[in-house]
Write a structure and sequence with these properties.
By secondary structure, the protein is an alpha+beta fold. It has two domains: about 1-25 and about 90-283, Thrombin, subunit H (Beta Barrel); about 25-85. Helix content is about 25%, strand content about 35%. The longest helix is centred in the N-terminal third of the chain and has 23 residues, at about 25-50.
Length: about 280
């Protein structure tokens, strides 16, 4: 389970310690616009239906109605879950904790990483370096089910692996796979950084089609670059869009100072690439 180094450092090991064209408007702004539109239509309808002797609709009436609409929209927005909350709730049932044991250069090693269920038969997609060289692999599902697991498929070229668990939960909840994100899209890595399970962070896509060098002189290409925090224990976990769809699998973080902690730049394998290893159709 050695961790690749050089410029790209995996965020998935801990030693003993989801294409849209165009820009989407925030949901809260859409809700506000809808309320204001309905208020305006109501005022127009009232004016058209006024009979003789009915007081004339004034600008003050219009202003009061608009203000009521704004207040109602703001109240609704305050009660609505944020995009991050929506993404978290949607993806959490598919999240997996991966724990490994093995022997490295320094002796016995324990590792922690993340994975995500991507099919109804329980296939778990993760980063290859999370489980590479492990003597034992154990997985914990969102409902608490624990099981041993083995590597069923792997692709070193994309640092991707598929695990098969010996036992599955009574109800398997696969994640929904999304399309390719665009620069500027909100994204949310979900994983277990530093052993803190089920942790969500948020940021935006900084660039696409990036290449980084990892251990053994290999290069990972076609990656999603993002600025949301990732740390050891995040690798193999899903990178989510605002709807909770998986758009990538977290593979590492930029490491110019040879440190294993987050310095502002993370990378993920696009789900179109990673999902292909698990037999998913191209996105």
């Amino acid at each position: 389970m050695p961790a690749p180094s050089a410029v790209g450092t995996p965020a998935g090991q801990e030693d003993d310690a989801t294409g849209r064209a165009g820009r989407r408007f925030p949901r809260k702004l859409l809700a506000l616009a809808a309320v204001l539109l309905l208020a305006g239509l109501a005022l127009v309808a009232t004016a058209l239906l006024q009979g003789p002797g009915t007081p004339v609709l004034t600008q003050a009436d219009v202003d009061r109605s608009v203000q009521k609409g704004i207040a109602a929209a703001q109240e609704q927005a305050r009660k609505s879950p944020t995009d991050a909350t929506t993404a978290y709730r949607a993806a959490l049932p598919s999240l997996v904790v991966i724990r490994t044991t093995g022997v490295g250069a320094g002796g016995a090693q324990n590792g922690t990483g993340a994975g995500v269920v991507v099919s109804a038969d329980g296939a778990i997609l993760t980063a290859l370096h999370v489980v590479d060289g492990a003597d034992t692999i154990r997985v914990s599902f969102a409902d608490g089910t624990e099981s041993s697991a083995r590597v069923a498929e792997q692709a070193a070229s994309s640092d991707t692996a598929v695990l098969t668990a010996s036992s599955l939960p009574k109800v398997v909840v696969p994640a929904v796979l999304g399309g390719a994100p665009q620069v500027g899209d909100e994204v949310f890595p979900l994983g277990h950084p530093l052993g803190l399970t089920e942790s969500l962070s948020g940021g935006v896509v900084s660039a696409v089609d990036r290449s980084i060098r990892v251990g053994s002189g290999r290069t990972l290409a076609g990656l999603i670059q993002f600025d949301a925090a990732v740390n050891p224990g995040n690798s193999g976990g899903p990178l989510l869009n605002r709807d909770g769809q998986v758009v990538g699998i977290v593979t590492g973080l930029a490491n110019p100072s040879e440190q294993s902690f987050f310095v502002g730049i993370g990378f993920a394998v696009p789900i179109a690439t990673a999902g292909g290893v698990a037999g998913s159709p191209p996105q």
